[in-house]
Amino acid sequence: MATGSKPLRADAARNRDKLLAAATRAFGEHGLDAPLEQIARSAGVSIGTLYAHFPTRDAFVDAILPAQIAALDGLATEALAEPDPWQGFTGFLDGLFALQAKDHGLSDALARRLPLSPAVLDACRTGFEHAARIIDRAKESGQLRADFEPADLAPLISAMSQLIRESPETWRRHLAFFLDGLRAS
């Protein structure tokens, strides 16, 4: 992979790969504010090497998160293929929050805890477009409350993100409460 017009030397490419792997683990475990010094140590490189490859935290985030956020595409495809729109909707939310529970960095990005780069915001926007189609489909089937809007998903994601951080073993229980309130009578 190149960091400009010149391809990286083999050792530099290995260091970059080690840094990406360490950052993915650290962000997943601790969120997007994981210490960069810890990431460098975990990768077995100096902090100078880290900054040579990724001059800012945003550079790490840009290198990692768009692909992770793209996992929402698979969830959306499954949700839209589900014959029962309500099951598609609930399955999408369960899958979304399961991803957040596994990866605190992804959770931070989806909950917008930190300012995000245009590349990450674009990936998030695509995910929300999929979610809007899933929501519309469930509303059209009469199973989802007519007053639930795609914009209502952002506060839910933020709230679930906080719940997952504080009490990771209870998020599915709270999701069930929420879904009971959203089901059309």
TL;DR of this structure?
With 185 residues, this protein is mainly alpha-helical. Helix content is 73%, strand content 0%.
What brief labels describe this structure?
185 residues; mainly alpha
Describe this structure in words.
Helix content is 73%, strand content 0%. It has helices at 10-30, 36-43, 47-53, 57-69, 71-81, 85-102, 104-111, 118-140, 153-166, 171-182. Helix 5 (71-81) packs antiparallel against helix 6 (85-102) and helix 6 runs antiparallel to helix 10. 32% of the residues are buried.
Fold blueprint:
Elements: H1 10-30, H2 36-43, H3 47-53, H4 57-69, H5 71-81, H6 85-102, H7 104-111, H8 118-140, H9 153-166, H10 171-182
**Shape type:** elongated
Number of helices: 10
Distance linking N and C termini: 54 Å
Helical residue percent band: over 70%
The overall average pLDDT, rounded, is 89
The beta-strand count equals 0
Strand content: under 5%
